[in-house]
Design goal:
The protein is an alpha/beta fold. Helices cover 39% and strands 15% of the residues. The chain has 14 helices and 14 strands. The strands form 5 sheets. A 5-stranded mixed beta sheet has the order 10-9-11-8-12, sandwiched between helices. Strands 4-1-5 form a 3-stranded parallel beta sheet, sandwiched between helices.
């Protein structure tokens, strides 16, 4: 795939000449702002409003990192990235991390100069079609044209699905997600394929959302995670444990409304460690001990972030599903704070 060539042909040379391995936290503190890569616009994950204010689950992960470091959710420079740019931007130091619906794969994790942190969303690739074409099953897309974005796992998954099911489909490939969505809107393709959650987001942007159907079949596993440059373990640990803290807070019932009270009054040792009232856990990742107290107070726990951006009160109306805690039938849990 050309994406590999683009990422590897010059990225490491550029990175090695301008960035020393390690030291991202020090760079961010010295700069006074976090450079965070996000999508070009996916409602519910990272999407700017008319005033340029970014909202979404991925955007809130960026803000959580800024709060942990600066105690200020506004100290984020959101950098919109296309699918092909999202890894290259991290490798070359254009951004400090990318929080942008990026699937954790072996190739990316081992060969492309980045490290994944903690899974923030479990997803799977699906298809959206117009109800008028009468398709209700992905295996009925024989002979269909399918809009897809290059430089993603989506393109390969589509080819694998067609081959495995002996279906002929024509992939209409676009450089960016916006171009693919717009092509589907204008009728250039019979179907649009990407992560199911993104299909739900893009359906809300259609002139008549009810005219479009997201097929039930998922053709892949898509664990989405923020990613950082390979070689800076302290920075990877910091981003990972901020996300782990958001998940742990939901498990323990620590919310933006009660975090300060719990910090002052709880007898639960795990909550005390999470909120920094016992132990020296902040020092492990170069932060003050109350880093998660600040994050939860200003951003909320994982459940609050999900419901605010993706849940039943939003246009997407996504169910938690695999992104629920294990006690509720999901996969989302964090390693122990100890």
């Amino acid at each position: 795939m050309n994406f590999k060539k683009l990422t590897l042909a010059g990225a490491f040379i550029a990175a090695s000449s301008s960035i020393a391995i390690g030291g991202t936290l020090e760079d961010v503190k010295s700069r006074g702002i976090l450079n965070c890569g996000v999508s070009e616009g996916v409602p519910g994950f990272s999407n700017p409003d008319s005033s340029g204010n970014w909202a979404g689950l991925d955007s809130d992960v960026c803000r959580a990192v800024a709060v942990a470091i600066f105690d200020d959710p506004e100290k984020v420079n959101f950098v919109p990235l296309t699918s092909k740019q999202k890894i290259l931007a991290v490798v070359t130091g254009q951004v400090d991390l990318t929080s942008r619906t990026t699937t954790w794969t072996m190739k990316r994790d081992t060969k492309e100069g980045v490290d994944f942190t903690t899974i923030v969303f479990y997803d799977g690739q699906g298809f959206m079609v117009r109800k008028s074409i009468g398709v209700t099953d992905a295996r009925e897309l024989q002979g269909a044209t399918v809009c897809v974005t290059s430089g993603t796992t989506t393109e390969l998954n589509l080819a694998d699905f067609a081959l495995a099911n002996n279906i002929e489909m024509e992939a209409v490939v676009f450089e960016g997600k916006k171009e693919a969505v717009n092509a589907y809107k204008t009728g250039r393709c019979d179907a649009l394929t990407t992560d199911s959650s993104q299909l739900a987001a893009f359906r809300t942007t259609m002139d008549n959302p009810g005219d479009h159907l997201i097929l039930k079949e998922l053709i892949s596993k898509e664990p989405l995670s923020p990613l950082v440059r390979h070689g800076d373990n302290e920075w990877k640990d910091l981003v990972s444990w901020i996300v782990n803290g958001l998940i742990t807070a939901e498990e323990l019932g620590v919310t933006s409304a009660n975090a300060a009270d719990m910090a002052a009054n709880t007898n639960n040792p795990t909550i005390q460690r999470l909120l920094g009232t016992t132990g020296e856990y902040g020092g492990y990742i170069g932060l003050e001990n109350d880093w998660m107290l600040r994050v939860i107070s200003k951003i909320g726990n994982y459940g609050e972030i999900f419901e605010r951006n993706l849940g039943q009160a939003t246009p997407l109306k996504l169910k938690r599903g695999l992104n629920a805690l294990p006690r509720d039938g999901g996969l989302l849990y964090a390693p122990a704070f100890r």
